[in-house]
Write a structure and sequence with these properties.
Elements lengths: L8 E5 L2 E4 H22 L5 H26 L1 H4 L16 H19 L3 H26 L9 H7 L4 H6 L1 E2 L2 E2 L3 H19 L9 H18 L7 E2 L3 H11 L19 E2 H23 L21 H13 L21
Antiparallel strand pairs: 1-2, 3-4, 5-6
Helix pairs in contact: 1-2, 1-5, 2-4, 4-5, 5-8, 5-9, 8-9, 9-11
Protein name: Phosphatidylglycerol--prolipoprotein diacylglyceryl transferase
GO cellular component, one term: plasma membrane
Family: Belongs to the Lgt family.
Length: about 350
């Protein structure tokens, strides 16, 4: 063991080990839920709506993330199938999680009668907040780190505390804390989203697209530093194009993390990041030109099944229940419909 590495196991309950990785991911999901619930109240969406979404969305995201990762690492798992289920050891992919979560969201929102774009906008800050926190799970597991750096770089250039520097010492070699770069990038994005969603020019769906653009931009450059990127063999011109886009990082003294060319020459996350940025910008433009984005973020959310604003059903039910209650005297004595006192002589 090198340095003072953090123990990935938080505590044990008998023979069951509870890992920090799971605790951190659970915390990320909880923070995301609270953010969505708080913003949802402005539009009349109940906390139960988001609680149910979390109950369906988290398993969908984990399954999607694991399938995505295993698909690109199949040669390592095909002879050890039980390892596919050991997610506490790491090995889940953010883009796979997004695919699973959005597939669940599309079905759930439609069943509830709400526009996907409107509710997804509310959830966008929750997504980036969850990713900001979740990256610390990679930190504890000593995974998803970048290429080799000097201890001096971590201590005196980045001015990182000892507990981070020590954890970046993997088998005697210090590495870029890419988890920290991405986490801080997401924190900045979260602040921007909080400001952006109060601007009157923002249309339905555009906060979600802003999330894709912001996250993908940061992920593209951070991914280039990593040494564990999922990759595939693609056209040389495409690999050169991605390397060219990443090259401004060299001006800041960074160099790309090792990528085994026999394994692949294109980092999957970098390619997806570029495609998501292009598609998101195009979708904002197309939806505005076509009139599909006529609704603004701050407009009331209408349930397309009832034609009423979100929360109207709950208000109507609460009102009906209130009307059914027996009348009361000012002294607190209830009376029946004939006006007789409910107090027995």
């Amino acid at each position: 063991m090198f340095g003072l590495r953090l123990d990935p196991i938080a505590f044990s309950l008998g023979s069951i080990n509870v890992h920090w990785y799971g605790i951190i991911l659970g915390t990320a999901a909880l923070v995301g839920l609270l953010l969505a619930v708080q913003e949802g109240k402005r539009f009349g969406l109940s906390p139960d709506f988001f609680m149910d979404l979390l109950l369906f969305g988290v398993p969908s995201a984990i399954i999607g993330a694991r399938i995505y990762f295993v698909a690109f690492q199949w040669n390592e798992y095909k002879h050890h199938l039980m390892d596919v289920f050991k997610i506490w050891n790491g090995g889940i992919a953010i883009y796979g999680a997004l695919i699973g979560a959005f597939a669940c969201g599309i079905i759930y929102f439609r069943k509830k009668g709400y526009s996907f774009w409107r509710v997804a906008d509310i959830c966008a800050p929750s997504l980036i907040a969850g990713q900001m926190i979740g990256r610390w799970g990679n930190f504890v597991n000593q995974e998803a780190y970048g290429g080799e750096v000097s201890e001096n770089f971590l201590r005196h250039t980045l001015h990182l505390p000892n507990w981070i520097v020590n954890q970046m010492n993997v088998e005697g070699i210090y590495h870029h804390p890419t988890f920290l770069y991405e986490s801080l990038w997401n924190l900045l994005g979260l602040v921007i989203f909080f400001i952006l969603r109060r601007r009157p020019f923002l249309r339905a769906g555009e906060l979600l697209f802003a999330y894709f653009i912001w996250y993908s931009l940061g992920r593209f450059y951070v991914e280039g530093l990593r040494t564990d990127s999922l990759a595939f063999r693609g056209a040389d011109w495409a690999a050169s194009l991605l390397n060219g886009i990443w090259s401004p990082m060299k001006a800041f003294g960074f160099k790309q993390g090792f990528l085994d060319q026999t394994y692949g020459n294109i980092r999957v996350s970098q390619l997806l990041a570029v495609l998501l940025i292009i598609v998101s910008i195009a979708m904002i433009f197309i939806r505005r030109r076509s009139g599909a984005a006529s609704e603004r973020y701050n407009d009331p959310i209408i349930n397309f099944k009832t034609g009423r604003p979100a929360g109207a059903e709950e208000s109507a039910r609460a009102s009906a229940q209130s009307d059914d209650k027996p009348l009361e005297h000012s002294s607190g004595d209830s009376v029946d419909g004939a006006g007789n006192s409910g107090i027995k002589e």
